[in-house]
Amino acid sequence: MRNEKPSAIDDAIIKHMKKKLMQYLSIVPLLYLGACAYLYFAQRSMLYFPTPATEITGAEKITLVSDGEKLRIWHVGPAKGDAILYFGGNAEDVADVAPAFSKNFPLQSIYLVNYRGYGGSTGVPSEAGIFKDALNVYDFVSTKHHAGTISVIGRSLGSGVAIYVAANRKVKQMVLTTPYDSIENVAKKQFPMFPISLLLKDKFASNERAASISIPILVILAVADEVIPRANSDALITAFHRSVPMRKIVQNSSHNSVLTSDDYWRDVGDFLR
User: What angle do CA 267, 268, 273 make, to 5 degrees?
Assistant: First the structure.
């Protein structure tokens, strides 16, 4: 059988398809770069979810000036004695846990910290700003309580803040609730197709600070944590070289419901008391 040559129409169709394919292939890199640019410039709006200002009864409202910002801190409990600094999770109104702290720690002085931009504190949240504020809060509390009597509790986002304070100040004990090894490592799992290490501004690298900390540590995990993968929490635990953290798992709990569990407060109370 004789081989037939492509007709002029077939040739035109092939050329058109090749042209469209090349156009498509030239757009893909632009789309990818556009997505990278969006992640870079919008990342803090994706990472931080500030809460509005609220008012509560039965708590003292403290305003502390830090780095030009006014931080709102809620204080419950006695003015003297052991102190606990609480650094909450993302989108968490720390005022909500004031009653639980009052009930479970009636003899301890509790300071619930609103990050800059959260709960009536001024400013815009960032890792550097939150860390600076956390140290200033500690230094303020240490004027009222001996440094050897101050413990820290950090939940989720706040676990990185608590670790930063413990690595830079004298802390008695530390509780980490649903913690991560680093925001960078968590983000890499969520966005595996992007160069997160290059794009991310606020990395909260708790795994790099853990090795220098040598105090009693309790890590509390939610049995069904849908936000922080268990592997990231376990990686943080192994990063503590000078301390061996106690590890508790709260049953029938998720990332956002763990603080509603009586088991959670019992475990924290047994550890800190």
Answer: 105
